[in-house]
Design goal:
The chain is mainly alpha-helical. It is built from 14 helices and six strands. Helix 9 links the parallel strand 5 and strand 6.
Length: 343
């Protein structure tokens, strides 16, 4: 099993945790509050601590569970602008898109030779993604999704990978692939460890899991009016008295949790203050907290444009390509496939 390092709170991350960290997002829609509190805040903390942080915008993986990738250029640009608005420093963090790094994907071929179909079909994360897709059958890209993620991690020889607990099976397979390659061909890859963060689980405003493609979250780029409108239509329940009871009243607890995260308050304390004010007051308090939290992000975002996003991706692509080509050269040499006779 991999070693799991727990990421401390942002204020506690003061020294580098690792030489290199790889993380990323699938560009299937707008980033929302769940992404901020689940991953983005931790990325900024890791960057500030001096880690070498690489972020892949996994455009190829959009096609794992849909027939058409949609307007990827726009979606990717908006996600990169969200990164900048949330505090990622273009001079200290490498951001790149999958499709811009050909050598990364060439690693999948030798990696696939090290993995059995049984391992792929039993992977719990793949099974859950297939279930969520609602499809009766899926393409080969979905089944090889964990191997693709292994290539994402190993192409740059990342030491740590921030994951939720549901992603640990993917990282275990990545470690297995690295170990099997090293055993068969010689030492090339490190065994990356998991970096487990205390990721809060935020429900969507309709009571389902918050998701980019479901449109049921509060986007980081929503205006104040859009936030207020979304929260007015959020699901609660019929009880007037507001209390923080996650098991019995999950929708009410979710709004309290969102307000608490944004305001830096305990959700139970907020519930005590709202008390008999009912759902209407709860939604107003939550909207005020969310908008106060998003205001500085909105102001920073207004200072960037599409040119900033393009330049960041170009710079990140150059570095990612250099790393991937260096690793692929090592892999070819280890496998006896280096045909440059000058070496």
């Amino acid at each position: 099993m991999s070693t799991a390092t727990t990421l401390l709170a942002e204020s506690s991350v003061t020294t580098p945790l690792s030489t290199r960290i790889l993380t990323g997002d699938r560009p299937t829609g707008a980033l929302h509050l769940g992404h901020y509190f689940g991953t983005l805040a931790n990325r900024v903390a890791l960057q500030r601590a001096g880690n070498d942080l690489l972020i892949v915008v996994a455009d190829y993986q959009v096609m794992t569970d849909r027939d058409h990738p949609g307007d990827l250029v726009r979606v990717v640009r908006e996600i990169v602008l969200d990164y900048l608005a949330c505090g990622l420093d273009p001079d200290r963090t490498t951001v790149f898109v999958h499709s811009a790094v050909p050598a990364l994907h060439q690693l999948m071929l030798p990696f696939l030779s090290l993995v059995g179909m049984g391992e792929l079909s039993r992977n719990p994360t793949v099974k859950e993604e297939i279930k969520l897709s609602g499809r009766s059958s899926v393409g080969g890209l979905m089944m090889t999704y964990p191997v693709h993620q292994a290539a994402d991690v190993l192409f740059c020889k990342a030491d740590l990978v921030p994951v939720g607990r549901d992603q640990l099976p993917h990282l275990e397979l990545t470690r297995s692939i690295a170990r099997r390659f090293n055993d068969r061909y010689g030492p090339v890859f490190p065994l990356p460890d998991a970096l487990l963060g205390e990721m809060p689980v935020l429900l969507g405003l309709d009571g389902r899991k918050m998701g980019k493609s479901l449109g049921n979250g509060i986007s980081l780029r929503d205006t104040a009016d859009e936030v207020a409108a979304k929260l007015r239509s959020a699901r609660t329940d019929s009880e007037r008295h507001i209390a923080f009871e996650p098991e019995r009243r999950p929708e009410v607890a979710n709004l309290l949790r969102i307000a608490g995260l944004c305001a830096g308050r305990d959700p139970s304390d907020l519930a005590d203050e709202i008390a008999g004010g009912g759902a209407a007051m709860l939604k107003r308090v939550t909207a005020d907290a969310v908008n106060a939290f998003l205001d500085p992000i909105r102001r920073r975002r207004a200072g960037f444009d599409g040119t900033d996003a393009r330049l960041l991706l170009e710079r990140g692509g150059r570095r990612a390509n250099a790393l991937a080509e260096e690793t692929l050269d090592e892999v070819r040499a280890a496998m006896g496939m280096s045909y440059d006779q000058r070496r």
